[in-house]
Amino acid sequence: MIETTSKKPKSQANSHRSQTRLLGVDVARGMAFLGMVIIHILPGYDENSGGPTPIWTIFSGNAAALFALLAGVSLAFMTGGRSPYTGAKRIRALVSIATRSLILLVIGMTINLVGEASGVLNILPYYGLMFFIAIPLTLFRVRWLILIAFIFASVGPFLVFSAYDLVGDPFTGNPTILDLFTRPSEVFTILTFTGAYPSVTWALYLCVGIALGRLSLHRERTQVAMVIVGTVIAVFSKITSFILLARQGGREAIFDATKELALADFRDLQIFGPESYYPTTTYWWLAVDAPHSNTPFAMTFSLGVAMAVLGLVLLLSKYLMNWLACFANMGSMSLTLYAMHLILVGIVDVTPHPTFWFIAQVVFAVAFAVIWALTVGPGPLEKLVSRASKAVGSAFIPERTRPQKAAQDH
User: Fold this and answer.
1) So where does this one cross the membrane (predicted)?
2) What is the reported pTM?
């Protein structure tokens, strides 16, 4: 288990702040993993009320957004954090990220062979492509990253809408490693435009995550600012979506353009989102902010929630780490646990007893993470990806070793 101490020598202050920051990020990553398990297993529809369950309202779309935002933070750390690498060190890091993206793509699509019929949408192949897209993004300063994030949030949804309008009924399931060779163009389309996490919109979270990773995340004023700014973004997105639909004629325009649409169906689309995508009858559909709808307001709402949660977790981690250590352990090996989760739901039908399978997975995840961290260290997949990517980076740009002082004296 991750341990903390109450006192540190002054000479170790900077190291302590950096370690606390990293542990806080792991805590947030563990919470994001837990949120995705909740969405994948527990029911989202309440038969008594006819509406969404509270857990659906809280976690749907937001857990995955937090996961993606933290991926951007990790990319910032890999490339130097507040002091971005330059020269050979930068190139080595970028080659490592490119290798990591390829490995994630292969792992994700291989897992999809097992869970092809589970109905759970695997984010790992999308991660693979997004990591590759993020390589040039790591070169930009914070202000430019914010501008690029705005472009992804505003232009990306229109590209998704246009892709569905052009293709009609595209392949939108979980692409497998076999699909990569038998229908590569369709795999590219789903990962870029028509999937659950298309890179033209979800790169928004990576942009903002990289920008946050360039800031002083250990400082309380930065963490408080993240909570405030994130809350403002989320509230603004909700209010703007409501005004456009209810006050500016958006809802009426949708019904006029979509003749077969019933009021109950529209309500469900507003709450739960579409199974694949909205009808491409009018651009007013982009004003809806349902989870996983890849509209501007859905994306920015989840971004705001993710920012606020990360800032709050970083704040609490300074004072409650002993209570949050189990989340930090899970977060430190979230790739391994997420892969295990996907394989389980791919081979076991968890729908008859969702509560049992949820509790069983959480207990297993906590126990495995704690025991593995104590006895081995990094998670197995984390170690594999890290070693392979660093090895390729070092092979491409060999690290120079400084001669020892004794040798120089001779």
Assistant:
1) 21-43, 55-79, 91-111, 123-140, 147-167, 187-212, 224-246, 297-316, 323-344, 356-377
2) 0.91
